[in-house]
Amino acid sequence: MLKRFCYLMLCVSFLHSEETDEVMYHYFILPPSFQNMIQVFGSEYGYNFISNLSGPNHIAFDIGYLGLSSSRPHAFGTKARYEYEYGRNHFHRFGIEAYYHPWFLRINNLQTISLFAGVGSRSGNLPTGTYLDAGILIFPHTFAYLSLNYRVDFFENAPTQHSFRLSLRFPMGIWLVPVVVPALSVVGAYNLSH
Question: Which of 79, 80, 83 is nearest to 100 (CA)?
Fold first, then answer.
């Protein structure tokens, strides 16, 4: 981990050269098998655009297999997910997402864009209902990647809601960083003083 941090600082200091490109490729682009492993428990934080009923922000947690591959022509994955939207109204969503990683959207065996679709149920302080998602994952081989999707919500006795969403997705373990980093600093300082 320290080695990757040092290489990151090296890349930032020299910004763009062939050596830093090679370091970035080898140390910050995750192999598909490793990315699939760390993303078994994933999380997401995002913003809803053009949404007339739900809150502007959402946080989600998922469990499953992302399904990235650099060798298979067509790769698939599935995840079950829980999502909480907050803002003007509060919603809980439970659903499932399916991922498709086509070979023609790979560059140098790295998936640049993946497609996904999802379905689930919604409950909260407004009418309950179901939702459908469709979208893309941008650079899913990286540690944290973007998700851009379109969502349609169907309600009982209420108008249909349409929204566009932009999210940052990352492994669930990242939520431990605010706790682990200070704790390691304290332990390190204690060990140095004794």
Answer: 79
Pairing of strands 91-102, 106-107: unpaired
CA distance 50 to 74: 33
Closest C-alpha among 41, 37, 33, 22 to residue 71 = 33
97 sits in the region (left: phi over 0; alpha: psi -120 to 50; else beta) called beta
DSSP state of 54: S
With beta carbons less than 8 A apart as the criterion, state whether 117 and 134 touch: yes
Kind plus residue range of the DSSP H or E element containing 21: helix 18-28
Q: Is the model's pTM score more than 0.85?
A: no
Look up tokens 């192999």; give the residue. Answer: 31
In the chain, the amino acid numbered 52 is: N
Q: Is 141 helix (H, G, I), strand (E, B) or coil?
A: coil
Residue partners of 168: CB distance under 8 A and separation at least 6: 44, 45, 46, 144, 145, 146, 147
Local confidence pLDDT in tens for the 194 residues of the chain: 555 554 544 444 444 444 444 544 555 566 777 777 888 899 999 988 776 655 678 899 999 998 888 778 889 999 999 999 887 778 899 999 999 999 899 888 788 999 999 999 988 777 788 999 999 999 998 888 999 999 998 888 878 888 899 999 988 877 777 777 777 777 777 776 66
